[in-house]
């Protein structure tokens, strides 16, 4: 069950129930946060529609969808119902998924004050992960490490703690106990939640 801080009360609360979850987002950073929320909710079996006010495909966010009704969750904007407070931050489309990673490396309720420095660090981290994944892909396949995948899912369920989910990937990459094939499949499973295209260098 996803529990997030409702900006109306400042307290953790369950997301609105029902088979369909409608999410709206205002601004590039909010759109990235909303997209991770969408992925986490879908992993939990919800059907989700996301209307990000703008085009943020460069940051891994799908084109806006018609919600067909009022938003159940408003990310980074104002409206009735459940609301997530996401301080705005300018994201350069040219920074692509490195900017997305910089967003995810910072708790969504905190300011992203050093965007340029954060994006540069994220670009290096993303490149390192993708290089590792491409190398692991040349080794025999193994099932993912379920404990690590669960740890990432649990982190996202707890107020969308994306830094903790990213830390899971760091631990998997550094683990001397997991074979390369298991590391690969674990990264793939977690990346389906984070949307960083970590398999980009496989086969190149």
Describe the structure.
- The protein has six helices and six strands; from the N terminus they run E-E-E-H-E-E-E-H-H-H-H-H.
- Helix 2 packs across helix 3 (115-136), helix 3 crosses helix 6 and helix 5 runs antiparallel to helix 6.
- By secondary structure, the protein is of the alpha/beta class.
- It starts with a strand and ends in a 10-residue tail after the last helix.
- The protein is globular, with a radius of gyration of 17 Å.
- The protein has helices spanning 28-43, 96-104, 115-136, 146-157, 162-174, 180-194; strands spanning 3-6, 11-14, 20-25, 47-52, 73-75, 82-84.
- Strand 1 and strand 2 form a beta hairpin.
- The strands form two sheets. Strands 4-3-5-6 form a four-stranded parallel sheet, with helices on one face. It has a two-stranded antiparallel sheet with strand order 1-2.
Feature tags:
alpha/beta; 204 residues; 4-stranded parallel beta sheet; two-stranded antiparallel ribbon; 2 domains
Low-confidence parts: none
Q: What general form does the structure show? A: globular
For the record, the count of structural domains works out to 2
Question: What's the main sheet like?
Answer: 4 strands, parallel
- What percent of residues are in strands? 5-15%
- Amino- and carboxy-terminal Cα gap: 39 Å
Mean pLDDT: 95
The ordered string of helix (H) and strand (E) elements is EEEHEEEHHHHH
Helix content: 40-55%
Q: Please give the number of β-strands.
A: 6
Overall SS class: alpha/beta
Radius of gyration: 17 Å
Sequence of strands across the biggest β-sheet: 4-3-5-6
Count of helical regions: 6
């Amino acid at each position: 069950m996803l529990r997030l801080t409702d900006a109306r009360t400042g307290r953790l609360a369950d997301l609105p129930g029902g088979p369909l979850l409608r999410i709206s987002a205002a601004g590039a950073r909010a759109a990235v946060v909303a997209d991770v929320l969408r992925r986490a909710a879908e992993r939990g079996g919800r059907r989700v529609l996301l209307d990000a006010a703008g085009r943020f495909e460069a940051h891994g966010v799908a084109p806006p969808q018609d919600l067909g009704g009022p938003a159940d969750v408003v990310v980074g904007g104002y409206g009735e119902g459940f609301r997530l407070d996401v301080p705005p931050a300018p994201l350069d489309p040219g920074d692509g998924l490195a900017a997305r990673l910089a967003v995810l490396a910072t708790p969504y309720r905190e300011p992203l004050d050093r965007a340029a420095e954060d994006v540069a660090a994220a670009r290096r981290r993303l490149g390192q992960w993708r290089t590792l994944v491409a190398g692991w892909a040349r080794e025999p396949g193994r099932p993912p490490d379920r404990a690590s995948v669960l740890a990432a899912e649990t982190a996202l369920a707890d107020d969308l703690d994306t830094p903790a989910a990213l830390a899971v990937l760091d631990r998997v990459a550094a683990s001397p106990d997991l074979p390369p094939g298991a590391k690969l499949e674990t990264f793939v499973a977690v990346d389906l939640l984070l949307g960083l295209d970590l398999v980009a260098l496989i086969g190149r």
